[in-house]
Write a structure and sequence with these properties.
The protein has about 250 residues and is an alpha/beta fold. It is built from 7 helices and 7 strands; from the N terminus they run βαβαβαβαβαβααβ. Bound molecules: NADP nicotinamide-adenine-dinucleotide phosphate.
Length: about 250
C-alpha cells in the first residue's frame, strides 16, 4: 500500500494489463503517476506489469480485477483506487470488446455486451470518479475508434457504442467543466485483434493509410500523455491517431 502522504497523481487505466492499455499505463507511470491497473482475465500480464513498474517505484501500482459490464464492479474499481491511493487524477476508459455483428444475425446479447463495455461502463465509471476528479482538477480520456465516424461494415454494434462514447466525451466535457477536462483518442490500426485477421486484410488497411504502416501502443500512450499533461485548454475533443487513415475516402 502506498504511503498516505504521497502526492503523486493517480490514474485508473481500464483494460490496462495488455496491448494499448499496458503501453498507456507504462507511459503514465513514467511521467510520475501512480496507477490502478484494471484487468478482467489477463491476470498474468497484469501481475507482470505491476512487478515491472513497482520495481521502478515501490507501491506505485495496484491491480483491480473486475468485469466492467457490471456497473457495480466499476464502482468497486473506483473505491479500490481511492482506498489504495486516496485520490484520482485521471480515468482512462480503454477496456473494450471488438467483434463482428453482421446486421441480419446480430443478437440482443451481443448488442448488450458491446454497449456495456464500450459505452455504459465509461459513463458509470466517470460518474463514480467525478467527485474525486473534481477535487484533483483531473482528466478523463476515452479511447474511441476512427470507426465511430466511418462505421466498419459488419461491426455496427461496436461502432454505435464508440460513437456513443464520442458523444459522451463531449457531454461530459460540459457536465464536468470547469474542473475536469474530458477528451478522446480515436486510434486507427494500432495492434491487430487477437483473433488474427488475415494478411490480405492487414495489407488492405495499411495500403489505405497515408503513413503506410500501422501504429503501436506507444502512439496512443503519447497522445494520452499529451491530453493529461500538455493540453490544459483542450476539452471535448477527439484526437485521431491513425496514420492519416481518416483523411482517405
Ligand atoms: N487495437 C487497435 O488497433 C485499436 C483500433 C481502434 C480502437 N482501439 C481502441 O483502443 C482501446 C485499446 O485497444 P486494444 O486493442 O488494446 O484493446 P483490447 O485488447 O481489445 O481490450 C482491452 C482490454 O479490455 C478488457 N475487457 C474487455 N471486456 C471487458 C469487460 N467486460 N470488463 C472488463 N474489462 C474488459 C480486456 O481485459 P483482460 O484482458 O484483462 O480481460 C482487454 O485486455 C480499445 O478501446 C479499442 O476499442 C484499438
Amino acid at each position: 500500500m502506498a504511503p498516505e502522504s504521497s502526492n503523486e497523481p493517480v490514474a485508473i487505466v481500464t483494460g490496462g494489463a495488455r496491448r494499448i492499455g499496458a503501453a498507456t499505463a507504462r507511459a503514465l507511470h513514467q511521467m510520475g503517476m501512480r496507477i490502478a491497473v484494471h484487468y478482467r482475465e489477463s491476470s498474468g500480464a497484469a501481475h507482470a506489469l505491476q512487478t515491472e513498474l513497482n520495481e521502478v517505484r515501490e507501491n506505485s501500482v495496484v491491480l483491480v480485477r473486475g468485469d466492467l459490464g457490471d456497473v457495480s464492479q466499476g464502482r468497486s474499481l473506483v473505491r479500490a483506487t481511492l482506498t489504495a491511493f486516496g485520490r484520482i487524477d485521471l480515468l482512462v476508459n480503454n477496456a473494450s470488446t471488438f467483434y463482428p455483428t453482421p446486421f441480419a444475425r446480430a443478437t440482443e446479447k451481443q448488442w448488450d455486451e458491446l454497449l456495456a463495455i464500450n459505452l455504459k461502463a465509461p459513463f458509470f465509471l466517470a460518474q463514480a470518479a467525478a467527485p474525486s476528479l473534481r477535487e484533483s482538477a483531473g482528466t478523463i480520456v476515452n479511447i474511441v475508434d476512427i470507426y465511430a465516424e466511418r462505421p466498419l461494415i459488419n461491426y455496427s454494434a461496436y461502432c454505435v457504442a464508440k460513437g456513443g462514447l464520442v458523444t459522451l466525451t463531449r457531454a461530459l466535457a460540459r457536465e464536468l467543466a470547469p474542473a475536469v477536462r474530458v477528451n478522446a483518442i480515436a486510434p486507427g490500426a494500432i495492434i491487430w485483434p487477437d483473433d488474427d485477421i488475415d494478411d490480405v486484410a492487414k495489407q488492405r488497411i495499411v495500403s489505405r493509410t497515408p503513413l503506410k504502416r500501422r501504429g503501436d501502443g506507444d502512439d496512443i500512450a503519447r497522445a494520452v500523455v499529451y491530453l493529461v499533461r500538455d493540453s490544459g485548454f483542450v476539452t471535448g475533443q477527439v484526437i485521431r491517431v491513425d496514420g492519416g487513415r481518416s483523411v482517405v475516402p
